[in-house]
Structures are given as structure tokens and as C-alpha cells.
């Protein structure tokens, strides 16, 4: 085989082998970048630190990204105490689309985390996160409503008395 033909064959094979690598290098600048925030797991401690450092409004904007409100709702619904403790600071900045789902998560956690949920209610019984709004009985099964009523009735903390009464009235349909 002539030398130039062998060289041509090697060049073709070598060039084809490098083609994917050079294509990757050529288009590397257009590849999407992953932010550190997207790879960081969202947890209550991180949100609490963000509340301290950036404030509630900025933290609420942060939760607008990467399904942060969904994660918060799931944690509240599951009764995770550290997440529930974040609610009072975030409540004024909850986007309107998230208000009712967050109320439902709070209602769901009410029978198991009664004291924690009642403590997060608006003490003025406001229309957004007051006891009358959060504890409405419309989406509770009769069994869940019964458990929630019993749980709220069992609270004996004077600091939460008004909130508990607002919630109880809503659960009882009064």
C-alpha cells in the first residue's frame, strides 16, 4: 500500500474519532450552566439562614424558583416542625397562586402538629392566614375534621388561645 494512501486512511479514522470531541468543545460555550442553588438541596436550615441574611421578601422570591414553594408545602403537610416554623416570616410574601395550597398543607398538618400550626396563624384572624381562612372545613373529610377539632380543643396555651378559637370556629362551621 502506498504511503500516502495509508496516511490518508489514518487521517480519516483519526479525524472521525476526534469529531465528537471537537464538536463538544465547539459548542461547550452554549451548554446550559447549572447554578449552585439548583444543585443544593432545599432544607429548613438553609431557608432560615436565607431569612436571616436576605430577609423574608428575598427568600420568598428565591422560593419562586426550583419548586421551592412546592417543597415547603410538602414539608408543612408532612408536619415537619422546622419548616412550619418558617411560615410566620414568609406568610406576607406568599404568591397568590400558592396561598390556597399552603393553607391546605397547614390544614393537613393541623391534627398532628396542632400547636405549631396554630402558632403560625394570623393573630388578627386575617383573610389570608387567619384561623378562619386556614381552618375552613370545606376540604377536610369528616374523620380529619373530627381529629382536627379534638386536637385544637386540647390546646391549653394562653398565648395561642385566640388563634385556637378562630380555628375551632372555622372547623365547626361557625
Automatic annotation (TrEMBL):
Keywords: Signal. Residues 1-23 form the signal peptide. This is Uncharacterized protein.
